[in-house]
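User: tokens in, sequence out, please.
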């Protein structure tokens, strides 16, 4: 019997041969098949074209999607072209063409076909090789001189681009000609780089050098132009010396002037030896003069004999060299020698004989006249004073036959013509014969230790009137409890005197003297004594202690005063226990001044007295401590219990154990010998202390499983003893329900509904009372529904209905009553109309399939009538972030078309205009949307909860995440700015962590110091003291090598945060600027030729600078960067609004800022340059914020600030701002124009007027095609009236009625600037010569152009285009024009070029007092006086 083949199938041998697009035994099912997917090639290079082709078969409409690595490709993208066409065989050919392939196109490309029932896909992988990228080093054109070496390098940045090239290499081309190896160039080439070198450049080497790959398919190259130029020659303009003949000890300087050229090197030489600044005897300075020459000075402050000879200066630039020399003769310093050389005593009536000789007669060279002479007590000795004087050119003698008591005094010899006061002298004491004589003086020891005894003994010739005294360091010593003084007479008639000290102390060190006197003469002798400290030891710990057996013993012993070990030979610190030296059983670590005794596990017999002493110290000095080792106490587990003996799978259970408290206790739970930890998700371990001081340990099991049956144990140990206790647990399986059928099903009306539910695992003791099974539909009990029948057999129940209806669609569930929370199994039955294909009213683009609406993403309900909005996931890249890092928040959302997403921080909405935030959204493959908020620069204020909200007109979904922000490490260095010191002065630096919270999460590390990038260690001569949050670096005596940049950083902080300061160490004689206080700032001394930084004055923020010139004099301070604190705070608040894009309280913040600025600028008679500069920034930011957030700004306050800033009292500050920053008054014009535009954008604009001292503003409304605009109110004169009577002329503008029709009245802002013209740039850009006070030499001086009027401005709500009739402007001249050399020009300010422009304006009439202009556009207008240039014929 033939088959009934459907859809055009053919029956052959009782088998259906189906038409294309159908399958099945009767061809009843649709068939969708991708026959193939192929690409034009498998490997491509970037820039190539790619073609994908796929042939698909289907009987009906189907959709096709192309994707790369799962990302759907749209045909609307310019690089992709997607086409499809039908083939003759009934299939469809689909093509995807990529016009220019990129490296990111590499991967898996797939095509997916869907007909609403069946989805099929195929994939293919292609590889994309990157486009060749070459890098030339250097990157930019260069110029070098002849004979110099030049090297070029060419590198393949991406070697992967050379894959599949079988040959070829990098080659060089110069001016179109290839350069070969072995030519005049040296070429070295590898696979990915090549180097071109020329050892000595020539002029002919100039040209364009190209680098390319010989076999790369595309013509890619990089090039550089090399220009070879001739060398500049060096020229020394002058070379001079202060004195060609000098004496030792004088100062000499040498000076040279040289043309300054590139690579100039200057060197000084003396007798062929190089002189550098490293020598302490020489100072070398260099500076540029006003005529751009280089002045070099070598100063020799203290000339010595070895400085005699040739002095040379050599200048070189590596190509040419020039040298000059001078000869310096150095005369030796006068040296006089007196005989006898030392002080003498002469008894009265004996002779005095002195002589004085010039030992180096050449020192008298170049002296005119003069000679040697004698002085006594500073007065010249004359020949008639009783002395005989004989003198030659180089010697003199002084004699007296019989000395007298009055001859006692100081005698000196000097030369009367020598320029420096050089003399030699001695003291002559004329005395009576001595009668007191100390024969000997000795001590028992010259070096001894504290606590020892000391004996002094002296023998003196006997004298009945003898008085003997003892002294220590100049202090008289008497008999006392410490000192014993005795004396006795010897058998030979001398006296012996003894001083005994029984307990020497450290303060007894120093000089000891004995003085003997008989009232006429006296004699003193001395001995120096050194006292060594007594050994002091300190033990750690200091006090006796007890430990339990098994615990460790650690003892330390330190020599507190290492100086006490001086003069000891050998020996070290040693340990004893109970008086016996410890030789084994302990680990001992000993240095010169410390020792440590350790034992990791103690025994009972380790109890005892431990002492520490020094083996070589002469006295028995030690420290000791008693250690008591006891047996450990046992551990006791008081109880172990479980919440119930029989457990059911899936229930929660807990174990509880009470244990006596012990120190160091470790408690572990185990099951059948396996350790239980918190890491296992089902288990939670807790512990607590009870009221009776025991510990309660609890193990919670969130959901019991069958494997939990068995032995459960708790074990407690403290490392010394252990206790364990166990309990057995039985676990029964949980009831499981089985539903037939298991899967959701769809039936038609009239068909049978039959469901069967069986309860499993019910034959256990836990369920001896039995269970009951219940049926529900959509959560409601249906056992009482008469249309259904329920039958039960044991643990099985059956639900039956003979004829299904549409209303029977729903979810059917079976549950049991064994547990408090009934468990159920369910199946969904969908009942559809039978034998009918009624269309269903699907909304929002839903598709009706089998009378059921299949809803698109974002909609639900029977007819897709309800919106479905849900945030499926919300996560962040990190929950704890450090400041200035980046973080992202990502939310996956499903929702209806047109739903919106909002982000907020701590309740404040985030705007898309924020500069710190990037908000993106994209569609996923399954139709959901992925929304990402990226914070590029996290700040402290970003801490808190971040909310993502999805919104429709009727629904809102929100999710929160909390983020913690750790502040960025802030370090502060004191002092704060670079400074200089002299050699021998101290260095004291302190580094502090301002915000210790920034170190949260760092497990170790500390502040460290570096000098010139190298870590400073303790043996560098610096003393470093460090705590957790601060560190000090000190050095008592600085030397020249200590100069450099010192930095402080944290060793383990993840980002490179550091603060640094440069310290200059100079010789004391270096020229410096002294300490000076000006502008309420103390300027510390600094080196000449440097700029010093200091903090700004009180109530200002920023850095002030001041230059110390080469002569060592301070110049005026520069406070351009000093700004009032309130302005700085206002600036920062506006920055945060712009950066965060927040809209909350913006009005309040902006207007509070304006009020502060208004008060500040009005209270001061003159604003500083820093305040002017900051005010310009704030006004610009206020305009930006107002424009960004539509904030309601107080216009009057804004205008008042502008008026105050424009005060003529601020002229000097405006000049400083223009000179030292890129700002000028034009920025104020621009921001006023922008504020006018912001005002005109708003709805319900109110008219207002502002009249200040320096400018006026009017905000008004008019219909310009019916009535013109006049601003400000003018006098009776008309704009075209140029009469020259004495009546005062006013400046105003007049916009006549416009011919172009305007639909409604428009608002306008008109401004007149009364003082701004004096501070605006004047260059209009229309002249062919630069503005200058003078032209070339020989020509007459030219005047500069200048603004000679107030400035008028007009802005309208609607762009009026080209004005018809034009705008009339009348300007009264600020300065009457009495010169025929100046002409008035009508100009407007061009914000693009920042210059005055004549475009669109012309002079209507003018005289020396007034000019009338006409302009065809709106902006800011003024009169510019320009030097008149007559036309030459």
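Assistant: Sequence out:
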């Amino acid at each position: 019997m033939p088959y009934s083949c459907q859809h055009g199938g053919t029956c052959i041998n009782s088998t259906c041969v189906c038409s294309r697009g159908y399958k099945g035994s009767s061809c009843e099912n649709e068939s969708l098949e991708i026959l193939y997917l192929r690409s034009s090639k498998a490997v491509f290079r970037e820039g190539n074209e790619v073609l994908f082709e796929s042939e698909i078969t289907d009987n009906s409409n189907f959709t096709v999607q192309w994707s790369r690595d799962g990302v759907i490709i749209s045909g609307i993208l310019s690089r992709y072209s997607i086409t499809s066409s039908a083939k003759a065989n009934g299939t469809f050919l689909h093509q995807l063409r990529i016009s220019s392939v990129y490296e990111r196109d590499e991967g898996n490309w797939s095509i997916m076909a869907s007909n609403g029932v069946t989805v099929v896909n195929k994939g293919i992988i292609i590889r994309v090789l990157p486009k060749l990228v070459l890098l030339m080093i250097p990157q930019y054109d260069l110029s070098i001189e002849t004979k110099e070496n030049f090297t070029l390098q060419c590198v393949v940045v991406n070697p992967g681009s050379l894959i599949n090239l079988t040959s070829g290499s990098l080659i060089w081309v110069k001016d179109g000609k290839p350069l070969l190896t072995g030519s005049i160039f040296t070429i070295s080439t590898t696979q990915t780089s090549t180097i071109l070198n020329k050892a000595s450049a020539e002029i002919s080497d100039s040209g364009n050098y190209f680098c390319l790959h010989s076999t790369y398919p595309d013509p890619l190259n990089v090039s550089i132009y090399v220009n070879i130029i001739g060398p500049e020659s060096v020229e020394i303009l002058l070379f001079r010396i202060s004195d060609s003949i000098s004496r030792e000890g004088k100062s000499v300087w040498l000076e040279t002037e040289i043309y300054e050229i590139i690579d100039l090197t200057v060197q000084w030489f003396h007798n062929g030896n190089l002189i550098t600044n490293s020598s302490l005897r020489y100072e070398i300075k260099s500076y540029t003069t006003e005529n751009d020459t280089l002045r070099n000075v070598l100063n020799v402050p203290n000339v010595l004999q070895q400085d005699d000879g040739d002095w040379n200066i050599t200048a070189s630039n590596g190509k040419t060299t020039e040298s000059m020399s001078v000869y310096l003769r150095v005369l030796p310093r006068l040296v006089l020698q007196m005989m006898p050389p030392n002080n003498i005593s002469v008894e009265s009536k004996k002779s005095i004989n002195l002589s004085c000789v010039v030992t180096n007669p050449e020192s008298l060279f170049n002296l005119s006249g003069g000679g040697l002479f004698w002085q006594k007590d500073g007065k010249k000795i004359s020949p008639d004073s009783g002395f005989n004087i004989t003198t030659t050119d180089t010697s003199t003698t002084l004699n007296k036959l019989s000395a007298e008591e009055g001859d006692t005094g100081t005698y000196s010899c000097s030369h009367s013509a020598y320029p420096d006061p050089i003399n030699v002298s001695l003291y002559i004491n004329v005395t009576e014969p001595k009668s007191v004589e100390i024969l000997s003086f000795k001590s028992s020891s010259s070096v001894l230790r504290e606590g020892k005894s000391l004996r002094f003994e002296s023998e003196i010739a006997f004298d009945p009137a003898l008085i003997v005294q003892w002294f220590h360091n100049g202090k008289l010593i008497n008999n006392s409890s410490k000192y014993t003084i005795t004396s006795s007479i010897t058998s030979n008639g001398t006296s012996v005197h003894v001083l005994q000290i029984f307990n020497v102390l450290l303060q007894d060190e120093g000089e000891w003297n004995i003085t003997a006197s008989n009232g006429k003469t006296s004699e003193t002798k001395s001995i120096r004594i050194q006292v060594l400290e007594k050994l002091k030891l300190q033990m750690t710990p200091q006090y006796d202690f007890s430990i339990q057996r098994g615990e460790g013993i650690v003892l330390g012993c330190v020599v507190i005063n290492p100086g006490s070990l001086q003069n000891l030979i050998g020996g070290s610190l040693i340990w004893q226990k109970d008086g016996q030296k410890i030789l084994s059983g302990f680990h001992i670590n000993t240095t010169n001044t410390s020792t440590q005794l350790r034992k990791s596990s103690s025994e009972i017999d380790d109890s005892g007295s431990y002492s520490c002493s020094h083996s070589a110290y002469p006295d028995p000095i030690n420290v000791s401590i008693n250690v008591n080792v006891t047996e450990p106490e046992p551990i006791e587990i008081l109880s172990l219990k479980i919440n119930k003996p029989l457990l059911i799978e899936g229930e929660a259970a807990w174990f509880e154990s009470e244990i006596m408290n012990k120190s160091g206790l470790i408690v572990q739970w185990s099951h059948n010998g396996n350790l239980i930890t918190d890491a296992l998700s089902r288990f939670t371990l807790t512990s607590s202390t009870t009221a009776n001081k025991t510990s309660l340990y609890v193990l919670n099991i969130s959901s019991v499983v069958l494997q939990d049956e068995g032995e459960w144990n708790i074990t407690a140990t403290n490392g010394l003893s252990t206790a364990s206790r166990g309990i057995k647990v039985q676990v029964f399986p949980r009831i499981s329900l089985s539903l037939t059928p298991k899967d959701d099903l769809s039936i038609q009306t009239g068909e049978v509904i039959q469901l069967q539910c069986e309860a499993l695992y019910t034959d256990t003791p836990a369920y001896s009372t039995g269970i009951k099974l219940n049926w529900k539909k959509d959560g409601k009990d249906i056992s009482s529904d008469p249309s259904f029948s329920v039958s039960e057999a044991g643990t099985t129940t059956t639900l039956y209905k003979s004829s299904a209806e549409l209303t029977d669609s729903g979810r059917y569930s079976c549950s049991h009553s064994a547990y408090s929370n009934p468990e159920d199994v369910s199946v969904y039955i969908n009942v559809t109309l039978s034998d009918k294909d009624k269309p269903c009213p699907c909304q929002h683009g839903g598709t009706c399939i089998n009378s059921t609406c299949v809803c698109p993403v974002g909609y639900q309900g029977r007819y897709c009538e309800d919106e479905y909005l849900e945030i499926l996931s919300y996560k962040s890249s990190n929950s704890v972030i450090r400041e200035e890092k980046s973080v992202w928040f990502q939310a996956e959302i499903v929702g209806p078309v047109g739903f919106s997403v909002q982000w907020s921080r701590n309740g404040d909405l985030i705007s898309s205009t924020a500069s710190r935030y990037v908000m993106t959204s994209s569609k996923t493959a399954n139709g959901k949307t992925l929304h990402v908020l990226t914070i590029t620069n996290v700040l402290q204020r970003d801490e808190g909860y971040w909310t993502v909200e999805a919104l429709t007109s009727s629904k809102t979904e929100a999710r929160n995440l909390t983020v913690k922000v750790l502040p960025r490490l802030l370090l502060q260095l004191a002092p704060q700015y670079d400074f200089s010191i002299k050699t021998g002065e101290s260095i004291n630096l302190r580094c502090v962590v301002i915000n210790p919270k920034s170190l949260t999460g760092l497990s170790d590390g500390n502040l460290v110091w570096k000098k010139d990038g190298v870590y400073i260690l303790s043996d560098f001569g610096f003393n470093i003291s460090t705590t957790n949050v601060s560190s000090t670096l000190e050095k008592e005596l600085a030397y020249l090598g200590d100069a450099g940049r010192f930095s402080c950083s944290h060793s383990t902080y993840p980002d490179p945060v550091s603060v640094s300061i440069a310290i200059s160490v100079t010789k004391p004689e270096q020229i410096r600027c002294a300490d000076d206080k000006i502008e309420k700032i103390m300027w510390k001394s600094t080196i000449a030729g440097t700029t010093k930084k200091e903090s700004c004055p009180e109530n200002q923020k920023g850095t002030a600078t001041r230059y110390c010139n080469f002569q060592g004099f301070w110049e005026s301070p520069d406070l351009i960067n000093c700004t009032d604190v309130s302005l700085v705070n206002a600036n920062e608040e506006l920055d945060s609004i712009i950066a965060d894009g927040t809209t909350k309280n913006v009005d309040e913040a902006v207007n509070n800022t304006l009020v502060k600025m208004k008060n500040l600028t009005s209270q001061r008679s003159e604003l500083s340059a820093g305040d002017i500069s900051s005010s310009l920034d704030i006004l610009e930011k206020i305009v930006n914020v107002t424009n960004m957030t539509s904030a309601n700004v107080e216009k009057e306050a804004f205008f008042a600030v502008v008026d105050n800033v424009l005060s003529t009292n601020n002229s000097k500050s405006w000049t400083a701002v223009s000179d030292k920053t890129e700002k000028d008054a034009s920025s104020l014009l621009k921001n006023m124009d922008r504020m006018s535009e912001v005002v005109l954008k708003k709805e319900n604009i109110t008219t207002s007027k502002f009249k200040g001292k320096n400018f006026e503003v009017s905000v008004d409304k008019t219909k310009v095609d019916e009535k013109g605009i006049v601003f400000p109110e003018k006098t009776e004169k008309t704009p075209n009236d140029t009469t020259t009577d004495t009546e005062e002329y006013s400046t105003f503008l007049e916009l006549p009625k416009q011919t172009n029709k305007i639909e409604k009245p428009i608002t306008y802002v008109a401004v007149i600037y009364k003082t701004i013209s004096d501070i605006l740039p004047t260059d209009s850009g229309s002249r062919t010569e630069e503005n200058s006070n003078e032209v070339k030499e020989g020509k007459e001086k030219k005047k500069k152009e200048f603004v000679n009027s107030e400035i008028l401005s007009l802005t309208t709500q609607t762009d009026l285009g080209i004005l018809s009739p034009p705008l009339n402007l009348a300007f009264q001249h600020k300065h009457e024009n009495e010169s025929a050399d100046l002409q008035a020009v009508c100009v407007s300010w061009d914000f693009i070029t920042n210059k005055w422009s004549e475009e669109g304006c012309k002079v209507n009439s003018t005289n020396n007092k007034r000019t009338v202009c006409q302009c065809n556009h709106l902006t800011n207008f003024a009169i510019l006086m320009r030097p008149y240039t007559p036309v030459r014929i």
